[in-house]
Specification:
Helix content is 59%, strand content 16%. It is an alpha+beta fold and 174 residues long. The termini are far apart.
Length: 174
């Protein structure tokens, strides 16, 4: 008979699986308390919730949330990083921490219902942030308009100069 605590934990994780479009399944074995605390703090600042739970409870919650099949990735010491924000930012935090400490090891991650292996983690982590991508799009859209305004300004400056020269010539003639 499951305890109320386990039932509550499954319900909490089920809602996390449903509410977040992205999550990262990691192996945290080998992280000491200070490293784990630092990682959690950094993740929390990036709008990421890092949950350590028993694999049986994670499997049940994932099944309840109708996520893709994750059973092969849920073995051994497991923690899941749920992100409500930019998945690339969350991936960068986890990737940078793993580069520095070689932990946690990413087993798999899910973006919009698609499961990716740990090999894809570097590619996701190296993507620019959402804000940087938006700035690049705005710059790309704005550049032609800036050039158009500059060209029109030059054209009208020449036109006004020509009209002024013509007016001065007419005044001089008569």
């Amino acid at each position: 008979m499951p305890t109320q605590k386990k039932i509550d934990k499954v319900e909490e994780m089920t809602s996390l699986f449903k509410e977040t479009g992205s999550f990262f399944i990691t192996d945290y074995q080998g992280l000491n308390v200070a490293d784990m605390t630092g990682l959690r703090k950094t993740l929390r600042e990036g709008e990421v919730r890092y949950v350590v739970a028993k694999n049986t409870l994670l499997k049940l919650a994932a099944k309840n949330a109708e996520t893709p099949d994750l059973d092969e990735h849920l073995s051994g010491p497991t923690a899941v990083a749920f992100t409500t924000g930019d998945p690339a930012a969350a991936a960068k935090i986890i990737y940078d921490h793993a580069k520095e400490k070689e932990l946690p090891k990413v087993r798999a991650f899910v973006l919009d219902g698609v499961v990716y292996g740990p090999d894809e983690m570097k590619r996701l982590a190296e993507l620019p942030s959402r804000e940087q991508l938006l700035a690049q799009v705005v710059a790309a859209v704005e550049a032609p308009f800036s050039q158009l305004v500059g060209s029109l300004d030059g054209f009208f400056r020449e036109l006004v100069g020509s009209i002024d020269a013509l007016a001065d010539k007419k005044k001089a003639e008569g």
